[in-house]
Sequence to fold (369 residues):
Amino acid sequence: MNGSNQVPPAQRPRKIIHIDMDAFYAAVEQRDFPELRGKPVVVGGAPNSRGVVATCSYEARAFGIRSAMSAAKAYRLCSKAVFLRPRFEVYRAVSTDIRAIFQDVTDQVEAISLDEAYLDVTASSLFQGSATRMAEEIKRRIRELTHLTASAGVSYNKFLAKIASDRHKPDGLCLIPPEQGRTVIAELPIGAFHGIGKATEAKMLALGIHCGRDLERLPLATLTQQFGKAGAYYYRIARGIDERPVIPNRPRKSWGAETTFPADLSDKTEMREHLAKLAEGVLKKLARHGLQASALTVKVKYDDFEQVTRARTLGRPICETRDVLPHLAELLDRTEAGSRKVRLLGVSFSILENAQRPVTGQLDLFTQG
Ligand code: TTP
Ligand code: MG
Fold:
């Protein structure tokens, strides 16, 4: 691959990118409701409920509000904050979009949550193999497609890549090269170690371990004696060693969408239109992921909540909505929709195996600009 590199692949440091969206749910709300921009926004439970804060905008963080805090406490800290219920379907849609961007860079993607993923780009030759430039490009594409910002961390293992993505939030990009790894860890407060929760932090502080440097001083035997199996992990992490691989998520076998209607439907033409719209949305997503559909399922939930599905295998890969319209109508006809009222309709497509996006398609993205 890279002829000037003298180090055999097995010993060459890996290149790991960690991407994490900034104030994810809150940022989506501020994007969709411009009047919320610049304001403290709290997404989660209602302030007068027993609910908790899922997340909050950076403006709300200035008041000390944090994830997992009770909504009531958040209200006490900032009564003028805007409290919103989460809109998961919107966050999921953004998540699908950013994952498509990751897949354009590499298939070595491990999504950790809706807003966070690790990418192993060691084998990628994009930008002459510069992981930092790949991270810049991912951030740029996320902003362009979703109008949201992400922070990126680049390093030689997952632990440090995650530390790096946190360093310059929001909209940050931080590289921790191999020669700096140990210093960064030495200075890291023990509470900032991912994988060290509140209880372990308290125990470490009681043992006089305040930062990575203190941790590094302890022999392996002491650490395993105090922390069991985790002790060996801490021992290695303190030395900048984290060999956990990026484990690509298993490809999804099917993709779908569904809608519950505000009022039950009885008109079949209207149902067909809804199915077509749902199918179009899913097919667009499949196209973005370079996937092709091999089978189609229609789901109908009647007004009494009874639910049926009808499926058919397609003779050939289908990409266009108009190609599936007759199938949607036929599958709908095989239900009692119309004679019974319908409260929910859904469409899903099974994915044709081995229908990968061609490699040139991946590179196109990066040769445009
Ligand atoms: P995070 O990435 O931890 O937080 P964030 O994106 O809101 O803020 P930042 O990364 O800039 O610090 O979590 C991602 C989303 O997951 C978050 O927007 C809401 C949700 N979440 C919860 O619902 N409960 C929680 O306790 C946490 C930490 C997150
Ligand atoms: Mg985040």
The chain has 14 helices and twelve strands. The longest strand covers residues 254-265.
